[in-house]
Write a structure and sequence with these properties.
696 residues; alpha+beta
């Protein structure tokens, strides 16, 4: 963690910072434990119901609305210690010091305690993270989901009498005794969400003060110096009430308590401007709050929400909070964040399939220890590990293919082997269109070109402007081809294929063709409002059990996803979400399975960004024990400008194949510093086998 040190210049002299001024900023993220089964929910909503049901059922309410949100880690059961351990590791390694658990107590009994009691407190790495309680003593209404123009049924009442409050206090103190409970100056931190609801239930300020004093006395009797009582500063809470009740600090839970949702950048600047106002308002130290975002439409589908809550915008607010705390001379330096996992409210740090670990990386850059992944100008993550290939250089040059088929370029190399011959399908940029071409070889280095294997479709057909990027798989005596078609291309001479990219089908009795198109077979097409709205182009097909998986490319933004079928001549079923976050900005892939360690390696081409715009800047590899589940943190660079011998900017479309004790990596590139789609050649690089993930 980075120390927040305030150096004050007075009269031209630099004063030594006081101990208070040199304290580091502690980052505490709220944790909503609504993602495990609870007996109360089982009775009301059905056995096993959690708020994941709302997350999955959410639907876009407008064009570009990022719903449903999909967690990178899947729909975890937070009461499972193994699943909670993953959260603890991610939080602690990115600069989050504590989880503040939303803590519920209704009908004189605990509610939603499984995430804390069975998950967090039994996680093997629990001592890496501190934790605290925020008593979420609000009325619980059934908004799961809410129905427009209908009243929300009241399920549980937040107000408590003195008897129940004493039970709450006794239960809280049992948590205080845990070795990793969060303390401020030795005093356990305990926050109350709705202070005035507590006051109302106890019968007024005086009675509430007596109850809180009893709470403090019990804590002292248990061996603690005192309690650090924190109030969430919203609703009817007044400065006078804070003083009368003896609170030690005030913070916020979420920006939406004070400001209506809007574009994140504007919402953030207005919220940051409120921090000095709140500091002046409250008679005790105020801890600023930063919200990740806000989108409550999984519960209230018709409500407005915050847009543009990107990791870079979030980082800007974190830096503002750090500066604000650095300039404050007194009081603990604490930042609360909404939140670790408010998925149904669209405000969470946990990785999702849109930004991956982006928001956590932002915390690490501002507050965390150690290096964090560098970023491109628009915030997309870079790979920092390397699984470095040895580049051999160009093995197939464009320009001499039959009938000028590749006179303007050769790209999108896709290689397979049959009966000792290597078959290379590549996109030849010829005089009339980009078309799939074939070359054959016995050694991957010397190739014989055979010209186009596909022709353009009739005017108006899905492949009337291009027929390229074919992936093939053998099934019995038949060969099945899945190729990319589009009815659009840029003007001549380049004729670069344009959206939409569509997956089409052909068949042959041999690997060399001839290939017979199957216009009646539609594997899958683009679909408006999905992650494959503009691109649903083919990828490698592998056999898995009784069915097949295809790793296809989708956009925008670019990403990879899996399609499923049990019959190669029937439509495919597409997964509802991609396999890696869209922030990764990857497309086109090729798989290799390493039997020695039972690991899958997914080679893909990364889209970079600089002053020249977007272009394929490197080949990355991801690894996983399960070819249908991939972690964006498990990735490395295979080939980029540092180890490519002949292309120092643009490198694209990997295809891999095992050759003896090496793995061949074929790719395309324009050479030199060019980032052009045109004038590309096919290169070859090598990796030693067995393939092992790089050490961190």
């Amino acid at each position: 963690m980075i120390n927040a040190i305030l150096l004050v210049l007075a009269g031209g002299l630099m004063n030594s910072p006081t101990p208070q001024e040199t304290r580091k900023v502690e980052v505490a993220a709220y944790y909503f434990p609504g993602y495990h089964a609870d007996p109360k929910n089982d009775r009301r909503k059905g056995v096993g119901w959690t708020e994941w049901d709302l997350v999955k059922a959410a639907r876009p309410q407008f064009a570009g609305h990022d719903q449903p949100r999909t967690p990178s880690w899947g729909y975890q059961d937070e009461s499972d210690p193994k699943e909670m351990a993953k959260k603890i590791e991610a939080a602690a390694s990115h600069g989050v010091d504590a989880f503040i658990f939303d803590w519920y107590w209704y009908e004189d009994a605990p509610y939603l305690f499984g995430g804390l009691d069975r998950g967090f407190l039994k996680a093997p790495n629990r001592n890496r993270m501190k934790f605290a309680l925020m008593w979420a003593n609000h009325d619980w209404h059934d908004c799961h989901p809410a129905h427009r123009d209908q009243p929300l049924p009241l399920i549980y009442t937040g107000a408590t009498d003195a008897r129940v409050f004493d039970h709450v206090a006794d239960a809280a103190i049992r948590y205080f005794k845990k070795p990793n409970y969060w303390k401020i100056d030795g005093n356990p931190y305990f926050s109350i969400y709705e202070v005035m609801t507590l006051v109302d239930g106890l019968g007024g300020i005086s009675n509430a003060r007596h109850a809180l004093d009893r709470f403090r006395a019990k804590a002292k009797a248990a061996g603690f110096p005192d309690i650090h009582l924190n109030a969430v500063g919203w609703g009817p809470l007044t400065p006078e009430a804070v003083t009368s009740l003896g609170f030690d600090s005030v913070t916020d839970y979420v920006w939406v308590h004070h400001l209506a949702p809007e574009k994140y950048s504007e919402w953030a600047r207005k919220s940051e401007a409120q921090w000095p106002e709140f500091e002046s308002k409250w008679p005790v130290p105020y801890f600023p709050n930063v919200s990740v975002g806000w989108d409550n439409t999984p519960r209230y589908s018709w409500l407005t929400n915050v847009t543009g809550s990107t990791p870079l915008e979030f980082e800007s607010s974190l830096r503002a909070a750090k500066q604000y705390l650095a300039e404050r001379r007194s009081g603990p330096k604490i930042l609360t964040i909404n939140s670790w996992n408010e998925w149904t409210e669209g405000s969470y740090l946990e990785p999702d399939m849109t930004y991956g670990m982006g928001h956590l990386d932002a915390i690490r850059r501002v507050f965390g220890k150690g290096p964090s992944a560098p970023r491109y100008p628009d915030g997309r993550p870079e790979a920092t590990l390397r699984l470095e290939a040895i580049d051999q250089g160009i093995v197939l040059k464009h320009g001499d293919g039959p009938n000028r088929c590749d006179e303007l370029g050769a790209r999108e190399a896709i290689v397979f082997e049959s009966n000792g011959t290597y078959y290379l399908h590549y996109d030849g940029a010829g005089p009339t269109a980009w078309l799939a071409c074939l070359a054959t070889s016995k050694d991957l280095e010397h190739w014989t070109k055979h010209g186009p294997i596909l022709s353009l479709g009739a005017p108006g057909a899905p492949d009337s402007a291009t027929a390229t990027a074919p992936w093939v798989i053998q099934e019995g005596d038949e060969w099945h081809m899945f190729y990319m078609g589009s009815p659009h291309a840029t003007p001549p001479p380049d004729r670069i294929p344009s959206f939409p990219y569509l997956t089409l089908k052909a068949k042959s009795v041999g690997p060399s063709g001839p290939w017979i198109k199957q216009p009646d077979v539609v594997p899958f097409h683009v679909q408006p409002g999905t992650y494959y709205a503009e691109t649903a182009s083919p990828g490698q097909v592998i056999k898995r059990g009784d069915g097949y998986l295809m790793f296809f490319s989708a956009s925008m933004p670019r990403t990879l996803a899996i399609a499923h079928t049990n019959d190669l001549d029937r439509p495919w079923r597409l997964d509802p979400q991609p396999i890696l976050p869209r922030a990764e900005q990857i497309e086109n892939s090729s798989l290799y399975y390493e039997p020695s360690n039972k690991t899958w390696f997914l080679f893909t081409n990364h889209i970079g960004l600089d002053e020249r715009g977007e272009y394929t800047d490197s080949i990355w590899v991801y690894w996983s024990k399960n070819c249908e589940q991939w972690d964006p943190n498990d990735k490395a660079i295979v080939l980029d400008r540092k180890n490519c011998r002949w292309s120092h900017a643009c490198i694209g479309m990997p295809s891999v194949i095992k050759v003896g004790n090496r793995l061949a990596v074929l790719y395309d590139a324009p050479g030199g510093d060019s980032v052009s789609h045109m004038g590309r050649d096919i290169g070859l690089a090598w990796l030693k086998l067995p393939l092992l993930p790089p050490k961190r």
